[in-house]
Amino acid sequence: MADLADAILRRNSDRSNEPALICTGQALSTIPYTTLDLWVQRIRATLEAAGLSRGSTCCLALPNGPAFVAAFIAAIDLKAAIAPLNPALKQSEISHTFESLQVDLLIGPRDFHKNDDDLIRAANDQDFALAECYWSENDLVFQIVREQGVRENSLAGLSSGSDFVALILHTSGTTGRPKAVPLLQSNLRASTNSVIESYGLTASDRSILIMPLFHIRGIVAGLLAPLLAGSAVIIPDKGLGPDFWSDFDKHHATWDCYTHAPQGLALISKATGLRSAPLHSIMLFAVGAKSVARAGRYLQGTRARSIRYDRERASHIVSRVGSRKNAWHGRLAVPYDLPQDHRR
User: Fold this and answer.
1) Region 217-235 average pLDDT
2) Residue 76 near residue 43, CB atoms below 8 Å
3) Fold of 4-18+27-184
4) Beta strands in the chain (DSSP E)
5) Labelling 294: which of 19, 60, 204, 256 has CA 20 to 30 A away?
6) Contact 71/56 with Cβ under 8 angstroms?
7) Distance CA 324, CA 186 (A)
8) Higher-pLDDT residue of 22, 178
9) pLDDT digits (tens, 9 = 90+) for 60-85
10) Which of 168, 171, 247, 261 lies closest to 209, judged by CA?
11) What's the average model confidence in pLDDT over 224-236?
């Protein structure tokens, strides 16, 4: 099985001029696969020159956007681990994350290292390198802004053969300090394939990304699944903002995955303006049956589904909008919100 980065970029080589990312609010709104591949190779070369390699750990403190996507894929291509940071974390929580992961590099937006905030105060107590990645004049800039010696690769021992730790997430910390959960590249690949195959994603679909990319569903269902399927990911610059439905309609989105949250329900409840769109092609997914049930009157005639996680089966239950019965979807055998080792 090819690595995830290879599968995304090289499997889509015949679609090199097709859009990979559509970024609203950016000067260059459509980014084809060939440009994304160029950015990834450029970032990877800079990471290698800085001494990073298989088993290194990179923290990403970037918002949803082309910078995050390119840096994420470049690190995986290098077989380094990515640890996305929640921007809501306080200095003490960030410091704990840095120390527990033995971070080699922190990647942030333009001039972030000049700020006086919780992130930089925590970073200044550490001796890892800093890099900035940002959009400038229709191109992506990636550069090291603080060089430090790279540590011994602490994650190398968790890798085996061609597999490696690709992603490190943290628990919510409701019963104590957040705990790190490493996910192998094979975990991500299996989960991503499961989403593609179970929901029938194809190159003709388009995902609109509203989940944050420090969340597993944002990473797997919102970003990696559509890219691996060869489709485009629409990234609204305002996220769950007032332009969401106009962006959805303008860029012909068909796929959206969001967690059961008040903001998501509020958006769906305002979907009346979508009635002029080709509803039969829309495939909205919500986590939690109540979300879709309450939105069902707006989404009749679509491919919308409700998803809830069944921990006893270690899989998901999928039901159609307007259906009173839950439909067992056998191909969702690998949960995309838990590592394979946690299946019971």
Assistant:
1) 92
2) no
3) Rossmann fold (3.40.50)
4) 19-23, 30-32, 57-60, 81-84, 105-108, 129-136, 139-146, 165-170, 180-184, 206-208, 232-235, 255-259, 283-287, 305-310, 315-320, 327-328
5) 204
6) no
7) 35
8) 22
9) 999 999 999 999 999 999 999 999 99
10) 247
11) 93
Chain mean pLDDT for the chain? 76
**CA angle, residues 54, 57, 62, in degrees to nearest 5:** 125
Nearest in space to 98 (alpha carbons), one of 67, 129, 75: 129
Residue-level length of the chain: 344
Higher pLDDT, residue 311 or 45: 45
| Cross-sheet strand order for the sheet of 315-320 | 30-32, 19-23, 232-235, 206-208, 255-259, 283-287, 305-310, 315-320, 327-328
pTM beyond 0.90: the answer is no
Q: Which residue has the tokens 């470049």?
A: 74
Domain 186-342 architecture: 3-Layer(aba) Sandwich (3.40)
What are the b/e assignments for 315-338, b being 16+ CB within 10 Å? bbbbbbbeeeeeeebeebebbbbb
**Token digits for 277?**
């769109």
H or E segment to which residue 298 belongs: helix 289-299
Q: Start-end ranges of CATH 3.40.50.980 in the chain?
A: 4-18+27-184, 186-342
Band the pLDDT of 16: cuts 50, 70, 90: confident
